[in-house]
Prior knowledge:
- Helix content is 43%, strand content 18%.
- It has helices at residues 46-62, 80-92, 96-109, 136-146, 148-181, 186-198, 207-217, 223-228, 268-275, 280-285, 310-319, 324-344, 351-354, 396-412, 428-437, and strands spanning 9-21, 33-36, 39-44, 74-77, 130-133, 245-247, 250-252, 258-265, 291-309, 363-369, 419-424, 443-446.
- Strands 1, 2, 3, 6, 7, 8, 9, 10, 11 and 12 form a ten-stranded mixed β-sheet that branches.
- Helix 1 (46-62) packs across helix 12 (324-344), helix 2 (80-92) crosses helix 4 (136-146) and helix 11 (310-319) packs across helix 12.
Amino acid sequence: xxxxxxxxxxxxxxxxxxxxxxxxxxxxxxxxxxxxxxxxxxxxxxxxxxxxxxxxxxxxxxxxxxxxxxxxxxxxxxxxxxxxxxxxxxxxxxxxxxxxxxxxxxxxxxxxxxxxxxxxxxxxxxxxxxxxxxxxxxxxxxxxxxxxxxxxxxxxxxxxxxxxxxxxxxxxxxxxxxxxxxxxxxxxxxxxxxxxxxxxxxxxxxxxxxxxxxxxxxxxxxxxxxxxxxxxxxxxxxxxxxxxxxxxxxxxxxxxxxxxxxxxxxxxxxxxxxxxxxxxxxxxxxxxxxxxxxxxxxxxxxxxxxxxxxxxxxxxxxxxxxxxxxxxxxxxxxxxxxxxxxxxxxxxxxxxxxxxxxxxxxxxxxxxxxxxxxxxxxxxxxxxxxxxxxxxxxxxxxxxxxxxxxxxxxxxxxxxxxxxxxxxxxxxxxxxxxxxxxxxxxxxxxxxxxxxxx
Length: 454
């Protein structure tokens, strides 16, 4: 049988129910919300979702599991100079301090900006997160070690010029203060400090070294960079990548419900003394909790949505240097892993105290189309969880499943490009509901995430 050509976009839609969790918080440690359909809804941001999915896929690949187990993956961090310094120290025998100073100078001269050198906590961190292949630090360290003599000579000159430029800045600041108190000295002082600043230009990084750094930081064949994209404005000639994945904010299909959970943490030593006290007076001294507080928790049924642009994914992989056949193979593997991460991954905030990462979706709907399809409008009217006999829709989970499938069936009758629709459930009640709904022939029920895509 000849397989039909695949459409450009794979749309994924998911319904999941969560109880007493806090997967994402705002700056006040409160659950994030949005207003939709005239009521407030709980929200799990796309940023939190994307990171959870990206890290899930990367960890599986690094552990030799999943469709991407043989593929290169990326790391997003501000610590590339630190990582390169450690590699110089451990693999090439450099002194620790010299290695770090050299790696930082090389990367700074390549165009990356670093934190304030006077603050130890940020001095060796780039100001922005840099998403690059995981072996970038190894490559940078390897080049520095291979060109050690030339780079060390350049480094010493660079650091000396930097110190001179800093001294010129201090002199200029001092001149401004004097000028403020003595206007007649303003012109001469300003001229002398400007000349001092101009007299200490920073030596440029050798071209071969800068090219090596840019190549190490380039997206190359890191599949997750091809999927999720990256933007690095600090180095204009370092390639950016338009992501192939679109992710919507997840939101509750009903009005938001939040509880303020009061907690009391016990002090083990205090309780042990109380338990062994010889009199009630001694026991009274150790009464009460060790610590108390409040935490906000949310419950609800969420709708979430993501889209994979297959054409953009292949474009990104071809731009990374893959030929057409290799890019097609890598893209198919990336699609399988992306679908798995969309279903399996979950933000890890409060995971130990709420077990949120153990949740499974009630329903996943996947289908192809010539454009993305977002079904958020199916839930613009919030679900009324009141009894059906009283005009409500009953529990939000089954009600949301009914709405989503009804919405998709209605749309697919009017859009000829929609095809290969599949649904997956991990809920036995929803499985029974699917049997009762009488799904159209165009909608196939599957039992594994791997079967959600052709």
